[in-house]
Task: inverse folding
């Protein structure tokens, strides 16, 4: 799994690529928790770009849940967007679409977190 | 019918080997990429379960994986000599629970049961045997 970050217009974007499986989950959770803490400190919103995320298992879903909870607890606006077919299927089957804001594209995610241009 | 089998020690480090084994089978049999995901997911969920729970306090646990394909039906059988455990006996997770109330876990088996056509558990000669089947719509590209 490959994770990169960028920040502009008071919005941090995490680009998650590859496989979020049992092996990758621990490191990604640390990454996401740090990003939430940084966003809270800077007054930023946080969006997660999943366009290149090919695979997620229940271990990976857990990280999404932990990240979303941390964001909520820190009042950081948080949304995920551009899910691939496999990841979207996992979100749908697990009901995560009801507890995490999932948007079809970046524009929708920015609007959801109050950062639309 | 095509069959492939491999055996590994119940150690999380073996997961990439198992995923390569599955991926190679899919390639050799020309099975559609779009149908591989539920099998990859089931392989991880079940194997990690064996590693985390089935081998608790033991270092002699192995797991073997058998893949079969015939007439649009793919089958994966996971057998392990770990502690007896029927994952299908667990109650389904509460998918309507609020974020704060969501247990962190318990989703793996729910995902597998939903994405596969058929999942059965048997205890055979002291081993756990899970059999998963799914009909593949697309014809293999021979």
Result:
């Amino acid at each position: 799994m490959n994770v990169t970050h960028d920040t502009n217009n008071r919005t941090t974007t995490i680009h998650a690529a590859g496989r979020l499986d049992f092996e990758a989950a621990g490191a990604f959770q640390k990454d996401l928790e740090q990003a939430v803490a940084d966003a809270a400190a800077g007054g930023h919103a946080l969006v997660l770009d999943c366009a290149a995320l090919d695979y997620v298992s229940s271990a990976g879903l857990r990280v999404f849940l932990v990240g979303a909870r941390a964001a909520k607890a820190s009042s950081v606006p948080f949304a995920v967007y551009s899910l691939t077919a496999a990841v979207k299927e996992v979100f749908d089957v697990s009901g995560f679409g009801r507890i995490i804001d999932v948007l079809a594209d970046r524009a929708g995610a920015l609007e959801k977190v109050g950062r639309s241009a | 019918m095509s069959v492939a089998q491999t055996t590994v020690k119940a150690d999380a480090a073996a997961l990439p080997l198992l995923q390569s084994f599955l991926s190679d089978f899919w390639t050799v049999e020309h099975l559609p990429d779009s149908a591989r995901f539920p099998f990859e997911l089931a392989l991880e969920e079940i194997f990690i379960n064996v590693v985390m729970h089935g081998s608790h306090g033991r270092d002699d646990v192995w797991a073997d994986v058998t893949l079969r394909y015939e007439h649009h039906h793919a089958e994966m059988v996971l057998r392990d000599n770990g502690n007896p455990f029927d994952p299908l006996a667990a109650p389904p997770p509460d998918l309507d629970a609020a974020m704060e109330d969501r247990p962190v876990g318990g989703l793996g088996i729910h995902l597998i049961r939903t994405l596969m056509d058929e999942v059965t558990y048997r205890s055979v000669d002291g081993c756990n045997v899970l059999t998963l089947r799914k009909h593949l719509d697309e014809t293999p590209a021979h």
